[in-house]
Every structure is written in C-alpha cells, then in structure tokens.
Amino acid sequence: MALVEYEVKGGYAIITINRPEALNALNSAVLDELNGVIDGIDLNSVRCVIVTGAGEKSFVAGADIGEMSNLTHAEGVAFGEKGNKVFRKLETLPVPVIAAINGFALGGGCELSMACDFRICADTAVFGQPEVGLGITPGFGGTQRLARLIGPGMAKQLIYTGRNIKADEAFRVGLVNQVVPLADLMATVEKLAGTIAGNAPIAVRACKKLINEGLEMDMDEAIMFEAKVFGEECIETNDQREGMSAFLEKRKEKNFTNS
Ligand code: CO8
User: Fold this and answer.
1) Nearest-CA residue for atom 12 of ligand 1
2) What is the CATH number of domain 201-248?
3) Per-residue pLDDT tens for 122-168?
4) Partner of 90 at 20 to 30 A CA spacing, among 15, 45, 109, 122?
C-alpha cells in the first residue's frame, strides 16, 4: 500500500497522505514518498492539485513523534530540512495546491496545509501547533507561515500555548477560507479545483508566481513585476487570444492549451 496516493481526475490531481492507522503522521518514509509524488506530477496536464488525508478522522496529525523521540542534533536538523524541502516544493509548484482538511491538522499537518495555496476544511477539523508541549519548535515552517498567514500576534498566541482550535475559529482567524460539512468536503474542493483547471493555465500559474514572489518584494518592485509578467508572459499567448476571442464571440467554451 502506498503511503501517499496519487490520482489524476481530468485537469486536477489528488494527493492523499495514506497512513490512517497513525492518523497520517509524517515519518521519513511518508515525506520521501510525498517528494516523489510531487516530482512525478505531469504539469502539462495537471492544472491544480488537492492534498488531503486518508480516512475521516485526520488530515495529518503531525510529524511522527515516535521517529522524532530519539533523534540526535544532526538527525533533527536533517529531519527538519527533509520536511521543509518537500513543503517548499509544494508551495512553489507552478500550479495551485488546495488543502482539503478532513480532520486533525496538528503540528506538521497544520504546516503541510499552510504550504498549500489555500485551505478548505471539514467542520470536524482541528488545527494547532502543539510542539512546545513536546519540547520542540514547529519545524516544517510553522513559525514562519502561520505568522505570515494570520499575523504574528495570533500566531504567537497559538504557538506559545500549543492550544488546538476548531474549524470555526480557524475560519475566524483566517487560517482556512471555508468550512463545510465533512461529507461535502471533497466535492466542494474538487469543484474549486475544476474551476481553477478550467481557467487559462498560463494566467493561473502567473498569478501564483506573482502573489508568492511579489509578497517578498516591496510594493514598487512588486507592481513592476506584475506589469512585466502581464506583458511578457500572458499577452500574445494562445491562452490570452483564446480567452479574449471567446468573450468577443460570446462563446462559453474555451480551449486553453497553456501556451
Ligand atoms: N506521531 C506518531 N503517531 C501518531 C501521531 C503523531 N504525530 N498522532 C497520532 N499518532 C498515532 C497514535 O500514537 C495512535 O497509534 P496507536 O494506535 O499505535 O497507539 C494512533 O495514531 C491513533 O491516535 P490516538 O489513539 O492518539 O487517537 P485519538 O483520537 O485518541 O487522539 C490526537 C487524536 C488528539 C490527534 C492524538 O493522536 C494526538 O495528540 N496526536 C499527536 C498530535 C501532535 O502532537 N502533533 C504534533 C507532532 S510534532 C510535529 O508535528 C512537529 C513538526 C515539525 C518537526 C520538525 C522536526 C525537525
């Protein structure tokens, strides 16, 4: 049985962390498989990716505590780097990645969801960075991404207390975009993925790059970057011509080719 399952459905793909007996906790083997699955995504055909967890109870309940319990200094650094490398690969994947959070998203699970472009969760979801109670820091980007996502004050409160929050509070603080009944989660996220996959891939990918890289720049530089990508990467492409022709011809069907 694969620890990470991969399924392509039309224009989008679903990655499922598949270790339900341990609430999908991330050990080295899971991280290695996830890395391989991400490397194998065919970006010519896949226009959006969904990440979720197997079973109805957990997205990912964290990094594997058993595996971490006896690490040396050097192994601790290596484990942190392994997770960070994989999560960064997901974050910088050219196509959008949506986290479909079907339960516990704790520690490394909350961190995995934050490496995705945005998060939709079930009403049963629970979020938290409980690491300080285990004597460690968040190690897969939690101190950085949570602070950027919900602001340093709220991130510090959650991280210092290690308090778990339920879906409604996660929505209120801006950690998730939408809360839906568990039974509707995948249909909701797959519909979103389908909508994204139906838009011009060249433009969607450019938007992801602009938002991610632009946030690291000052505003003057960032808006110049936007103008450059607009002009040089979208204008005069087949997708731009197709999108605008369809509008002018009052045509609903569009044939975007990522070219
Ligand atoms: N690691 C390993 N095994 C786990 C984990 C985990 N994070 N979470 C759950 N499991 C296992 C349990 O040990 C149990 O296994 P078994 O049946 O063999 O005893 C099985 O999953 C089911 O779990 P429970 O029986 O505990 O299920 P409950 O419904 O009673 O409780 C909870 C669910 C509340 C989610 C509970 O399992 C829990 O608290 N889990 C740990 C949550 C946690 O602390 N996560 C953060 C871990 S630290 C982390 O993620 C750091 C990331 C960065 C590391 C970087 C290092 C450099």
Assistant:
1) 22
2) 1.10.12.10
3) 999 999 999 999 999 999 999 999 999 999 999 999 999 999 999 99
4) 122
